[in-house]
């Protein structure tokens, strides 16, 4: 099951989203060349805004680029192209459009999901971007600049043979990506099961969501939960082997991770996102990926959640 491959038919993905209305929200590229996938959505050309670029810290402006930590196995948000090196995805396109306003190039560095915030905090990366849901806990460690919104979606084998119910998953085997909000979600549900005198949930944790998804297809685990775009992508890539269980919930913004001491950089990134929202290039990216329902009206540093 090739879950890492780029979207071979992005328009099919867009149609599926639009038809299902699954992203009607209330509101988890390396810049060095074009994708090998000619059918992949293409990012818009965005011109530098000198006034916005002037907001950058001197060191960042002089460097002309930022290093971004990313876990590149979470399609369609961020994933590797067929060359195994270039990072693609709708998050990549959105963030690169904003950085273009600031005159910055993005150097994407794939790593493990749970190492990104630590890497930003210690200065290994200038930014972190990997479908990070904005949470109070994360904002205690880093700044987060909101730019998109998505909720959580459960999925299970087609026909739901184990009768998975997200509100009553006691005793089931659930697969999640480690360090995500879905990891926290399922841990809390398991604790509630035990407190109610029910059997705990057996939680299998994986470094990437595709690894977790593979165990649902194989029958090793009963269900998984992921951000809605990623869950829909899993259904698309596995044909008729999986199905959604219930509706998405807890829609919340994604955030770009910035070191707390980098207030100027945080504000500059937020201003850049607001600029692409105003000039329409933000909506252009969302439309290319079929995720217009996740649009935010305004990007903010450390938004209330």
Question: What does this entry look like structurally?
Answer:
The protein has 2 domains: 10-150 and 251-294, D-Maltodextrin-Binding Protein, domain 2 (3-Layer(aba) Sandwich); 152-250, D-Maltodextrin-Binding Protein, domain 2, CATH 3.40.190.10. 34% of the residues lie in helices and 22% in strands. The chain contains 11 helices and 11 strands. The strands form 2 sheets. The chain has an 8-stranded mixed beta sheet, with helices on both faces. Strands 2-3-4 form a 3-stranded antiparallel beta sheet, with helices on one face. It is globular and about 60 Å long.
Q: In terms of topology, how is this protein built?
A:
Blueprint: H1 10-20, H2 50-53, H3 58-63, E1 65-70, E2 73-74, E3 78-80, E4 87-88, H4 90-101, E5 105-110, H5 116-122, E6 127-128, H6 136-139, E7 143-157, E8 173-177, H7 181-195, E9 202-206, H8 209-218, E10 223-227, H9 228-237, E11 242-258, H10 263-279, H11 281-289
Parallel strand pairs: 1-5, 1-6, 8-9, 8-10
Antiparallel strand pairs: 2-3, 3-4, 6-11, 7-10, 7-11
Helix pairs in contact: 4-10, 4-11
């Amino acid at each position: 099951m090739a879950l890492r491959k780029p979207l071979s038919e992005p328009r099919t993905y867009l149609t599926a989203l639009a038809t299902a209305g699954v992203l009607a929200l209330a509101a988890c590229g390396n810049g060095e060349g074009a994708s090998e996938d000619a059918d992949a959505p293409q990012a818009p050309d965005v011109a530098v805004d000198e006034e916005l670029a002037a907001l950058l810290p001197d060191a960042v402006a002089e460097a002309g680029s930022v290093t971004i930590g990313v876990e590149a196995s979470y399609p369609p948000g961020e994933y590797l192209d067929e060359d195994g090196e270039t990072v693609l995805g709708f998050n990549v396109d959105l963030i690169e459009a904003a950085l273009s306003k600031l005159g910055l190039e993005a150097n994407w560095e794939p790593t493990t999901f749970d190492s990104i915030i630590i890497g930003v905090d210690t200065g290994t990366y200038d930014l972190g971007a990997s479908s990070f849901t904005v949470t109070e806990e994360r904002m205690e460690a880093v700044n987060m600049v909101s730019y998109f919104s998505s909720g959580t979606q459960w999925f299970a084998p087609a026909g739901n043979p184990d009768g998975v119910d997200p509100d009553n998953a006691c005793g089931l085997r659930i697969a999640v990506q480690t360090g995500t909000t879905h990891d926290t979600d399922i841990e809390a549900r398991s604790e509630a099961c035990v407190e109610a005198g029910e059997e705990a949930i057996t939680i299998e944790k994986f470094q990437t969501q595709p690894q977790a998804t593979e165990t649902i297809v194989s029958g090793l685990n009963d269900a998984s939960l992921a951000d809605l775009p990623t869950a829909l992508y899993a259904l698309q890539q596995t044909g008729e082997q999986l199905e959604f269980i219930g509706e998405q919930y807890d829609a919340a913004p994604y955030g770009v991770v910035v070191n707390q001491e980098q207030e100027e950089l945080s504000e500059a990134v937020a201003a850049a996102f607001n600029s692409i929202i105003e000039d329409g290039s933000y909506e252009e990216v969302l439309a290319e990926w079929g995720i217009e329902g996740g649009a935010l009206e305004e990007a903010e540093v450390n938004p209330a959640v």
